[in-house]
Amino acid sequence: MDNKKLAGEKAVEYVTDGMFLGLGTGSTVYWTILKLAELVKRGLDIKGVPTSKNTEKLAKELGIPLVSLSSINHLDLTIDGADEVNPNLELIKGGGGALLREKMVASISESLIIIIDESKYVTNLGEFPLPVEIVQFGWEITSNQISRLGCNPKLRIKDNSPFITDNGNYILDCYFEKIQDAYKLNGTLNMIPGVVENGLFVNMADTIVIGNKNATIDIS
Ligand code: 5RP
């Protein structure tokens, strides 16, 4: 079976009746959402907060009850994907461009479960370019300042135009090669004027569910 599907479906075992759930974004969480919808049809009572317009659309189509982030201040659990995870459970997220909403939702979640296929479990973060969401105004200046941290930032392009996030911002994909201190870099990046948020999730994930050769491994 597809490793993303394995991990995505396995995470649903952590969901219990009455939970308020953060619904992540991407092709791994897709399987979680499908499974959740099945359970909702059979009577599971949950309310979801989507982390992107794509997830909102999918969850609505499948009949998962949704609430807005503004109407609550606590979530029981968020299930989301990632682009890289290291053994300290530090993450790079934002390959799908939803990192800001994902981080906001994760920040009010009692528990964050990350679902990945085994290729994303790495010794060092940084081979995957770090997505940084920035405002459009003066983006070249912001990019320049970020490059001084030792990376090569590239404006994300989709269909020959700059990729625009759900929040109306740009994304810089920053090629660091190796990130030694994710905690420090997270803070440093977010101090740069023009940076809205970056894709490093530090001290946020509680459990990683890895899909691997017809089985899953849970790391907490
Ligand atoms: C979106 C994300 C995704 O969770 C991440 O890119 C993983 O996606 P996929 O499950 O499709 O591999 O952070 O902003």
From TrEMBL:
<dbReference type="InterPro" id="IPR037171">
    <property type="entry name" value="NagB/RpiA_transferase-like"/>
</dbReference>
<keyword id="KW-0413">Isomerase</keyword>
<feature type="binding site">
    <location>
        <begin position="80"/>
        <end position="83"/>
    </location>
    <ligand>
        <name>substrate</name>
    </ligand>
</feature>
<dbReference type="GO" id="GO:0004751">
    <property type="term" value="F:ribose-5-phosphate isomerase activity"/>
</dbReference>
<feature type="binding site">
    <location>
        <position position="120"/>
    </location>
    <ligand>
        <name>substrate</name>
    </ligand>
</feature>
<feature type="binding site">
    <location>
        <begin position="93"/>
        <end position="96"/>
    </location>
    <ligand>
        <name>substrate</name>
    </ligand>
</feature>
<comment type="pathway">
    <text>Carbohydrate degradation; pentose phosphate pathway; D-ribose 5-phosphate from D-ribulose 5-phosphate (non-oxidative stage): step 1/1.</text>
</comment>
<comment type="similarity">
    <text>Belongs to the ribose 5-phosphate isomerase family.</text>
</comment>
<protein>
    <recommendedName>
        <fullName>Ribose-5-phosphate isomerase A</fullName>
        <ecNumber>5.3.1.6</ecNumber>
    </recommendedName>
</protein>
<comment type="function">
    <text>Catalyzes the reversible conversion of ribose-5-phosphate to ribulose 5-phosphate.</text>
</comment>
<feature type="binding site">
    <location>
        <begin position="25"/>
        <end position="28"/>
    </location>
    <ligand>
        <name>substrate</name>
    </ligand>
</feature>
<dbReference type="InterPro" id="IPR004788">
    <property type="entry name" value="Ribose5P_isomerase_type_A"/>
</dbReference>
<dbReference type="Pfam" id="PF06026">
    <property type="entry name" value="Rib_5-P_isom_A"/>
</dbReference>
<feature type="active site" description="Proton acceptor">
    <location>
        <position position="102"/>
    </location>
</feature>
<dbReference type="InterPro" id="IPR050262">
    <property type="entry name" value="Ribose-5P_isomerase"/>
</dbReference>
<dbReference type="InterPro" id="IPR020672">
    <property type="entry name" value="Ribose5P_isomerase_typA_subgr"/>
</dbReference>
<comment type="subunit">
    <text>Homodimer.</text>
</comment>
<dbReference type="GO" id="GO:0009052">
    <property type="term" value="P:pentose-phosphate shunt, non-oxidative branch"/>
</dbReference>
